[in-house]
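pasting for the record
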Amino acid sequence: MNTLSRRALFRFLGLVGISSLAACAPTPGAPTAAPATAPAAETPKAPSLEATLEIWTYPRTENDLEIVYKPLMEKFTALYPGIKPEIDVQPWGGRREKLYAACAAGEPPDIWYATTDTLPTYVQKDIILPLQDLFTPEELADYTESEIAAASYNGILYMPLQEAEVNGFGYNAKLLRELGYDPQTAVIETWDDIYALAEKAKAKNWYVEGIRTVDWAEWVVTLHEAGGSVFSADRTRSLMTEQPAIDTLTRWVTEFKNGWVPLEYAVGSEQEAQGLPSYWLSGEQVTARTEDAACWRDVESAPELEYVIGHPRRKDTSLKLVSGVVSGQGWGITKLSQNKEAALVWVKFMITPENIGLFSTLAGTTPVGTRAKQEFWKPKSPCVLEHVSRFSPHLFADQDANTLWQESKLTCAPHFQAAVLGKETVEEALEAIDKELNKLIKERFG
């Protein structure tokens, strides 16, 4: 796994100065960059700090306070007896709106469990404290470059990650054997590999995979397999009429037209996607894009499923292998917090490799960081570690991961649906998408 060197981390974070923790309250209008020239006031030694921290987080178990946070906070309190963490485990639903309302009312938590896909909104609303000058390279050394990038926006670190989802592929070993493949040695890597497998699967009335046209992550990852991206690196324009996008939508159209994927997965909205059957779990689909714990969760749901961990993909061997986009959760400190020094101490405690590994062991999630995974994490099943080890090196995080994610999904899904159903050509669909995305970019970024 590609961990950051000391020199690379300095270059990535652009450490040209030290910014003060005492950030001002947000002002109306666009957020301003964190000051980088004024020296920071000397931070009191952590053990002497006294503060009560309000921390908002969201459930991973049936009782996070007892299962996850009690063991961790016992360790924390022993080190920092003057800092009192008050952890509030809230529902996932409506969490963003509640946070925005609390910040607008001037009553935010000190820390909240932030999500990577919402990071641009946190920045645009000017509610999250920039942290790029408040960590040393050593404190961030266990993270990979993609994990740092996923926690950053425009090169500024905002929310050090605690956990992430590692997407990859699974194979149905029973179906592979019946199609003439050895499940232990088969590598379905290039698009030609997928097409060859698809033809054989169709002859058995099976699907090769499942493509939901409303699944934005599926589109983004497949587009990166083709060597492309949705947006330019500077977020100034859409790239959806360029060749990689044409190749990607052409692949989708081909798979639907040939009956290689379920036709009912051609949906144009989240509402249409509700209640779709899982041919993967019913044993009628040969491969599937899965998350890290699917190797045991899917088998629990479908005991007849003979699960084998698959491989990352690419359009052809001239391109990089791709498994998925880095997405996950990390700790954000609000700009309006009155306890920024203590909040920073708490966040730094939580993201040590040992505590990241312990958190994910207790919460049943997947940790970030190299040492955290290899030395301190005890997943429920060894297959999860095998999945993570295989796919983590091929995760990416770039402008597509945190630019207009929800808006892009809503914009593109109807056109993807129209293209795969033959109501629009590939070119017509992508030209319409390109026009709409460029309009959104102008409205959001100017």
